[in-house]
Amino acid sequence: MEVAVMTAGENFISRVKQGFSEQEKKEIVMTVLRGENSLDSICETFDIEPCTFFQWSKEFLEAENRKLTAAFIHRALNEQESELKSRVELVKKRLSRL
User: Fold this and answer.
1) CA dihedral in degrees (25, 26, 32, 33; nearest 10)?
2) Hey, how many other C-beta atoms are within 10 angstroms of the C-beta on 7?
3) Mean pLDDT, all residues of the chain
4) 76 conformational bin, left if phi > 0, alpha if psi -120 to 50, beta if neither
5) What Rg value do the Cα atoms of the chain yield, rounded?
6) CA dist 87 to 1, 49, 69, 81, 96, Å?
7) pTM score, two decimals?
8) Residues contacting residue 52 through CB under 8 Å, at least 6 positions apart
9) What number of helices (H) and strands (E) belong to the chain?
10) More confident residue, 12 or 91
């Protein structure tokens, strides 16, 4: 059985790569999406592979999409609720006339 031996530097880099918080990942992704830095520059600066960046960006964009979808649904439900309340008030007024 072979065991991969890592140097102290590789071990440090490995720990650093695993140490990014969700907020840090988001900020790194946003930096590239806003065009403030190139993908190559970001990957070199943070010692990450492009595939890692693309995974982070995919996760970030999917999370943002879920937030937007939830906000859209919430807004639609609020609009429906307001409309139904208006209809209930109209029905109450009509019933009170009987």
Assistant:
1) 150
2) 8
3) 83
4) alpha
5) 26
6) 74, 57, 27, 10, 14
7) 0.59
8) 17, 43
9) 4, 0
10) 91
